[in-house]
């Protein structure tokens, strides 16, 4: 009923922000973008290619479209967007993941005839997406990055690993291609046996990998530097500290807290200026436990998973991006952002905390602190319950399939 009333509001009340926004990919990041724009009265269209997405059922979505997977069928993905343009020409395209971002960027010259594009040009995006290019640029301009080698064989990798010392990290050149196959960002290598097993497993998929030093430090040493740049100048800057990852040490964030970390400001600015980057980005750093210095991990040229945290703290980056693209303005930002607000991915946090209980050894007070303080959750939201309901239903449906797959495997 709420969703129906919301759609009728757009149809008859004609909101001030009447340029629609089309969110490509409606999983967790997409849902965060949808809500950030929806609370500002912007008509949002959800374009999803995965049935497991939950964002397209949000009350803020006025219409949804099933589109082709941009990684498997980029040609049809673009054709789908051109079909949508017949009704929503002039809308703003928001890519919510690397596959949609890459496809939009590659076809930007065509798509910009029909849409307003929120995506870097492809030559710039390649430097961000292909991690070897990112580290080469960092080294060139004097930003600290992990020692990285590019082995062609296990023998080379073993030689490099002995040079680096253990533990180290086996990491893909292009992250989303690796994650698609292995459901993880990278592989933690403790010894030569781990390295050989990993190489044998990966070579089947012909994914280019790099061997990288492991920056010592626990999950709380990770930092996000979020910013909005215009003509080489940081208009807005927001930093946050990671609390827990899934899996620990090398995974995706499951708990983050807003906090000002001065040390990452200058290297973050340096990288974005070298890239001549405009708009929103998220740069990840990690503090070296021994040296105390912050080391570059990666750059995201799109809205990130914990974007709702910045919104909760007072910096609505999707809306800021929308305004800049639609009318060239920037919303007035008054005052500093709120510190000490937690972002939690509760489903991932609960499962990982049970799975890694012995390894992490959290005190109960440490575990519950984010839940007992001011926070924002990834999917649950009392103002917008349908995504949580769909996510729960999908999870229950998937459990028997997962069990069957593990048994047969």
Summarize this structure briefly.
The protein is an alpha/beta fold and 409 residues long. The protein is built from 17 helices and 16 strands. The longest helix has 23 residues, at 386-408.
Explain what the structure shows.
The chain is an alpha/beta fold. Helices cover 43% and strands 22% of the residues. The protein has 17 helices and 16 strands. Strands 14-13-10-11-12-15-16 form a 7-stranded mixed sheet, sandwiched between helices. The N and C termini lie far apart (44 Å).
Write the layout of secondary structure elements.
Layout: H1 2-13, E1 21-24, H2 28-38, E2 44-48, E3 61-66, H3 74-88, E4 92-95, H4 98-106, H5 108-111, E5 116-118, H6 122-129, H7 131-141, E6 148-149, H8 154-164, E7 168-172, H9 175-182, E8 187-189, H10 192-202, E9 209-213, E10 222-230, E11 233-246, E12 252-258, H11 265-275, E13 279-287, E14 294-300, H12 307-313, H13 317-327, E15 342-344, H14 346-355, H15 357-360, H16 364-372, E16 375-377, H17 386-408
Helix pairs in contact: 6-7, 8-10
- Helical content, roughly? 40-55%
Largest sheet: 7 strands, mixed
Percent in strands? 15-25%
Q: What is the arithmetic mean of pLDDT?
A: 89
For the record, give the distance between the C-alpha atoms at the N and C termini, rounded to a whole number.
44 Å
| Secondary structure tally, helices | 17
Structural class given helices, strands, pairing? alpha/beta
What general outline do the C-alpha atoms trace?
Answer: globular
Per DSSP E runs of 2 or more residues, the count of β-strands stands at 16
Rg over alpha carbons? 21 Å
Unreliable parts: 1-16
